[in-house]
Amino acid sequence: MVIYTVGTFDLLHVGHLALLEYCKTLGDTVAVGVASDKVVNSYKPNVPVIELAQREEMLKALSCVDIVRPYHELEYVSACKELNVDIFVIGGDWGNKPHNIEVEDYLKSMGKKIVQVVYNPRTSSTKIKQKVIAQFHKGRHIETAII
Question: Rounded to whole angstroms, what are the CA distances from 133 to 17, 38, 55, 142?
């Protein structure tokens, strides 16, 4: 079985690892779609800290990941077709945007599964970035507000 999940995977952390290891329990092959800077910038205010090629390289080094492929458009159906995905693993922040509904409809029509996971709220790339910024400004009498 082919398991597919997508994300930015910026500042790789234990939450990412837990997701990918969980994916490996669901099937034989874990394929990871990594969002390009252009894709990330279409729905987040900032591009990733780690460049795409390095994020891909880190993911390829994980034993629980078999395939790493970048995506440059906010669209998932083509990858699901190309990889013949059996299960698409999504996060708790999935939402009902048109590109999400499109892949849900496609997978349902093909008799495939979608599994939604709940992220650990203690760990995220955003929280790591906030902590780094706070430590940088500590003692410099500069107030930092992240909104």
Answer: 24, 24, 21, 11
